[in-house]
Amino acid sequence: MTVGRSAAVLVVALSLAAATGCGGSSKSSTTSPTQTLANDPGPTPPTSDLALPPGVPDESTGPATNASRRVINHWLKALRRGDVKRAAHYFALPSKFQNATPVLIVNSEQERIAVNVSLSCGAVATEMGAAGVYTIVKFRLTERRGGNCGTGVGGTARGAIRVERRKIKEWYRLPDKPGGQQQAPPAPSGPAV
Q1: pLDDT digits over 35-56, tens only?
Q2: Cα 42 to chain center, whole Å?
Q3: Which tens digit of pLDDT belongs to each residue from 77-93?
Q4: Which strands form 134-142's sheet, in the order they lie side by side?
Q5: Rounded Cα gap, residues 180 and 182, in angstroms
Q6: How many CB atoms lie within 10 A of CB 69?
Q7: What is the H or E stretch that residue 13 is in?
Q8: How many beta carbons lie within 10 A of that of residue 47, not counting itself?
Q9: What is the 3-state secondary structure (H, E, C) of 152-165?
Q10: With a threshold of 0.85, does the pTM exceed it?
């Protein structure tokens, strides 16, 4: 599959990700097709559409910038309050999003709202560090108004977030431990909202 996705594919992918359950592995035995050019093999492709893209770090190497901390904390606060539209506006257009899904390209208002709706839990950042242009965040999952975090409340998750010009330009779900396997997001435990 290519990196770009339409809104319909976005909604389907997010629905599938939510259905996989809390803490489940998102291992895939299917690999992405690759093209190798004779003179230019290009970057090494991920082993699966669900793998982190090459170059996305999963461990911090230094302190996070104050500017990135502010954007991420404001986004999380809006999400916890259930203000999905405000939370969505912390995402740049276009931006990239991956939460136990292939990398999705968010190109429209509807898509950035859908990305935030797909996050059934709220969260509080408990740790932030930097690795290059990314902020590595450890989250403690909480309820969010209008969401359904279910058994995910109190759990933790990690993400690599790139903030640019006071907007989230890239958001990747990281393995629970550096170097570990990707985990599925928490599944709602009740009826869909």
Answers
A1: 334 444 555 554 688 999 999 9
A2: 25
A3: 999 999 999 999 999 99
A4: 62-63, 122-131, 134-142, 156-164, 167-174, 91-98, 104-106
A5: 7
A6: 17
A7: helix 7-19
A8: 12
A9: HCCCEEEEEEEEEC
A10: no
